[in-house]
Amino acid sequence: MNSSTLSNIARFFGLIFLQVLVLNNINFLGYINPYLYFLFVLLYPFNPNRSLFLLLSFLLGISIDIFEDSGGIHAAACLVAAFIRPQFLRFSFGISYDHQTLRLSATPFGAKLSYIFLMVVIHHFILFSLEMFSFKHIISILEKTIYSSLFTIILVFLSLALFSKKYR
Question: What's this protein's family per the entry (predicted)?
Answer without folding.
Answer: Belongs to the MreD family.
